[in-house]
Structure formats: structure tokens, C-alpha cells
Amino acid sequence: MMRFHYKKAVSLEEAFEFLSQNTDKARILAGGTDLMMDIREKTGYVRGMEVVYDISGIKCLSGIREKAGVITIGALTTHAEISRSPVIGKAAPLLAKACSLIGGPQTRARGTVGGNISNASPCADAATALVALDATVTLTSLKGSRQIPIGEFLPGKEIFEPGEILTEISFIQLKDTETSAFVKLGRRKALAVSRISSAVILEIEGGIVTNARVSVGAAFPVQRRIKGAEKLLEGRWPDDEAIKAAGREAAREMLFITGERWSTEYKEPAVGTIVERCIKQALVVE
Amino acid sequence: MEKMIVNFIVNDEPVSVSVYPHETLLRVLREKLRLTSVKEGCGIGECGACTVILDGKAVNSCLVLAASAEGKTVTTTEGLMRNGKLHPLQQAFIDHFSLQCGFCTPGFLMTAKAFLDENPHPTREEIKMAISGNVCRCTGYHQIVDAIESLSSEKREQVIDAIEDAAGRLDGGEQECPAHPIKHTH
């Protein structure tokens, strides 16, 4: 069993102060669903850790706000809160869906969206949806705040400067002309870690896809947009042929990035199928 | 490492315990407070055997540091009984043969309790989703879903009975209805 001190943050200001002085010794505890596993498994992430710094009591880091079409989610907002939020259900249903499929109910009650993307496992479901949403991540320290596109933020851990905390995540709500979906494939139906996940946002005008955002998680080292697949969908009627081509493009890109592996025979068609399925769900044809 | 004092409410009683910072809530509940209904299954938040209700929410106590429970309210299966009588959920689990070895049962009870408190009239599908974070290797789950469903439908039947009574009184009592006005559906 690892030994360490425990300290609970009383305010955001105190947290900035404490973390800037204890960057190497402290690890942040939010929902604990990942950190407690790291402690148990003594992973590299907790090597040298002397204190668990619990920020879960900082109220201003929790909650969902909407202002002028921009949705802002506090880093400590739990997966359960996001998946049940009427604001998210309307503004970004793909994110609500992604968060509703993370772990089981007990994990969703504790796990936070900030933790999900900071820990930045390739299979973090919220991250796949947030990449499709072109979300912006806000990192704050005593020196002030900086905003980073999620595509540059991932894979999380390394980007933090001493004393920085991920404070919020924001994105522009979906337009009335946009439709979205999130699909994941796990090894079982419930409580599953994603093997492949996909999030899709399509803007449709007069039956034609005018703008497509396709992201894939778990099959890549980091969740990423599949620009090639997006191009294949844009400017045309989204028929079966276009959807299949987009799926094939995602599989091709996976092979290009990760190379041939023992799992390729299965994963190549599976990635294509999950992306196709996600596009079809966004189009409400499946 | 220094020990620290944690004050919290466990099964309606205020408790102060001395804990190490690295001790989990699971360990403290079981070993210090002797609340042995809380089981350690996997220890990594996958099986739900250690589920307790923390401030109204079902959580895996193996993933909670005891130190972080300061000021919070915890309910375990020991806290379900009232005046020496089993909680209706416990009785329902017995009536529907929802346990065999019993190891997972306290976790299921706490998950079901938190779930029914939030959603008193769930559908069968909602119940299955609600217990998806708890693993049972004996029952095959159907009996557990039956037990939870029986409580929700029992409540529904009470409402329906009350409506029928009221309707009966309006009709003038004993008269037999030609067609039953309310169908029991699940």
C-alpha cells in the first residue's frame, strides 16, 4: 500500500498556491475513479507522490452554464450530472450520451469530466465527444488562465505547467441545423472500457451535408478528428456509399497511424463499422 | 504518516474515527466500524460489492479515501433496517430469491436504494441500467431485477388501488364494473 498525506483544498486560490509550491509531490484528487486505481496499481503517474490534494470541495469548479450560445462545464462536473443535464441534452446530446456510457452508475456519480480529459486515456469517452465539439480547455494558475483547443490539450498530463489546474471546458452549442451522435464499442454491453468510440456532428442543409465533424477514440493513441472522412461526407447527399467511404477512411487512417497489429484483422472493419453506425445515428437512419 | 480524525455520519449516527490518509472508506467501514456488509470484491470499482450511499449517491467505497468523507453522510446495508424490521428492499430480495451466496447483495441493495429514492417508478430497462455497476455471479440478475421492480410496481399498485377505491365509492360501492377501467401494465 502506498503511503501519502491527504490535504483538502479550501478555495481555488489556496489550491493554486499549494500546487505551485508542490508540483512534483502533489497529485490532484477530483472524483478519484482514476487516481485511486493509480495508487492501488502504483503506476508511474503516482511515483514520487507525497500528498493527495483533494479539490472536490471547490464548488465554483462544478456546474454547467450557457451564455450567448457557449456552453461552459466546470471541471468537477460529474459524468452523471452531464448525462442528465437538460442544457447538455439540447446543446450537445453526443456529450450527454458519451458521459452516460462511462463506467457504471457508481463511477459516473464520482468521476469528473476534468479528470476524464486530464487523465486522458485514449479510451476516455468524454474526450471523443469533446474533440468533435471543438471544445476549448481552460487551464488556470496563479499567473492567470490560458485556453487551449482540446486537440492540442490531449493527451493531457504533459501540458500542465507547475501549479495549473484544468478549471473548465467550453464549446459552442450545436446549431438547429446540426445533428450528432456518439457510439462506442466495448467488450461487453455495460460497464465497458471503450475499444473503439466515435462521435459525429453533421450540419445538414437541404439534405446536403455542409459541414462534418468526425472523431474517433480508443483506436488511436489520442482521440482525433478524421479530416479525410469529414471531406468525404461534405458537400453531398449522405447516402450509403458516402457513409461507407467515410468509415473506410477512418480505418485507413488508423492503420496509417498505428500500423499493422495483431488486432488489425478485427479492428479495421470494426472501426469502419462504428464510424458508419455513428454517422447513421446522427442522420437518424439507424 | 500521521493519522487524522474524520467526522462523518454513518447510518444516522455521528462518528469520529482515526484513519491513515491512505485508507479507503471501504476499509474504515469494514475494519474500524465493523460494518461488514460492505464487501471488497475487485477493489478497482468494477464489481460494486463495496457500494455505499454517500451523500445520497451510490458510490464504490473502494475508490473513496476515508479522509475525504469528512462531513459527509454514509449509509450501509446495516442502516437499512428500522426498529428491528427489514427494509422493504431487503424483504423483496428474500421474497424473489435474489441472492444465493449473498456476497454481492449489500452492494445491490445500496445501489437499488439510491436508485429508487431518485426514481420510484422505474421501468425494467431502467432498473437494468441502474444495476449495471454491480456484478452477481449466482443469480443471473433476473431475480434481482424482479425484486427491485416489485417495489416500484407495489407502489404503483397502491396508487391504482386508491384510484379504484375512489372510483368505487363514486359508483356507489359494491357494483361490479363491466370492464376493468385500469389495466396493470409493467
Explain how this protein is built.
The complex is a heterodimer of chains A (286) and B (186). Chain A has 286 residues and is an alpha+beta fold. Chain A folds into three domains: 5-54, Uridine Diphospho-n-acetylenolpyruvylglucosamine Reductase, domain 2; 60-172, Uridine Diphospho-n-acetylenolpyruvylglucosamine Reductase, domain 3; 178-282, CO dehydrogenase flavoprotein, C-terminal domain (Enolase-like, domain 1), CATH 3.30.390.50. Helices cover 37% and strands 26% of the residues of chain A. In chain A, the strands form three sheets. Chain A has a five-stranded antiparallel sheet. Chain A has a four-stranded antiparallel sheet with strand order 9-10-11-12, with helices on both faces. In chain A, strand 6 and strand 7 form a beta hairpin. In chain A, helix 5 runs antiparallel to helix 8 and helix 11 (240-258) crosses helix 12 (264-282). With 186 residues, chain B is of the alpha+beta class. Chain B folds into two domains: 1-79, Beta-grasp domain (Ubiquitin-like (UB roll)), CATH 3.10.20; 80-186, [2Fe-2S]-binding domain (DNA polymerase, domain 1, Orthogonal Bundle). Chain B is built from five helices and five strands, in the order ββαβββαααα. Chain B has helices spanning 25-32, 88-95, 105-118, 124-130, 142-171, and strands at 4-10, 13-19, 51-54, 57-60, 73-75. Chain B has a five-stranded mixed sheet with strand order 2-1-5-3-4, with helices on both faces. In chain B, strand 3 (51-54) and strand 4 (57-60) form a beta hairpin. In chain B, helix 2 crosses helix 5. The longest helix of chain B is centred in the C-terminal third of the chain and has 30 residues, at 142-171.
